[in-house]
């Protein structure tokens, strides 16, 4: 499964990366996020193991990921450790655009669900969960960065 969401934001790459990479602040400006809690932190403060929790249309979701923030490359990476999305790779990229920055969230996941066809898993995990949550996340990031506060 491959899912891709992007948005244009009228700020610098550095501003967008600074806010996006501060995971613990997400619930302050992303109403669908309940919490992001570091279980362990990497030396240097550029990542760690994080438990993330959000809501999709009233459905509570949570997962644990290895998180790495690369400030030199302005990139964020997540590798899901559990539960159902174990092995999912998520990459955030911040690319200059004519009006600021293009922020992209790319999800790659090799679905290993033998009793469920890949198209069903793609529809549920990809379109119903990832596409919706990533879209809300990008829209919330844009609103916070462009709207101030």
Features:
149 residues; alpha+beta; 3 helices
Structure characterization notes:
The protein has 149 residues and is an alpha+beta fold. It contains three helices and seven strands. A seven-stranded antiparallel beta sheet has the order 1-7-6-5-4-3-2. A hairpin with a 2-residue loop joins strand 3 (47-56) and strand 4. The radius of gyration is 15 Å and the shape is globular. 26% of the residues are buried.
SSE arrangement:
Layout: E1 2-9, H1 13-20, H2 26-29, E2 33-41, E3 47-56, E4 59-70, E5 75-82, E6 89-97, E7 100-108, H3 118-147
Antiparallel strand pairs: 1-7, 2-3, 3-4, 4-5, 5-6, 6-7
Mean of residue pLDDT values: 89
Q: What is the spatial order of strands in the main beta sheet?
A: 1-7-6-5-4-3-2
Radius of gyration: 15 Å
Which stretches of 5+ consecutive residues score pLDDT under 50?
A: none
Tell me briefly what this model is.
This protein has 149 residues and is an alpha+beta fold.
């Amino acid at each position: 499964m491959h899912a891709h969401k992007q948005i244009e934001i009228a700020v610098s790459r550095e501003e967008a990366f600074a806010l996006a990479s501060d995971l613990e602040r997400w619930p302050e400006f992303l109403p669908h996020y309940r919490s992001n809690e570091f279980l362990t932190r990497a030396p240097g403060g550029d990542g760690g193991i994080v438990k993330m929790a959000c809501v999709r249309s009233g459905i509570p979701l949570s997962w644990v990921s290895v998180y790495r923030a690369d400030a030199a490359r302005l990139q964020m990476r997540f590798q899901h450790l559990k539960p159902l999305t174990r092995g999912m790779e998520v990459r955030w990229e911040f690319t200059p655009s004519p009006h600021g920055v293009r922020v992209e969230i790319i999800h790659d996941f090799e679905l290993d669900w033998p009793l469920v066809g890949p198209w069903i898993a793609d529809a549920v995990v990809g379109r119903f969960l990832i596409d919706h949550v990533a879209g809300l996340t990008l829209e919330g990031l844009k609103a916070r960065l462009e709207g101030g506060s």
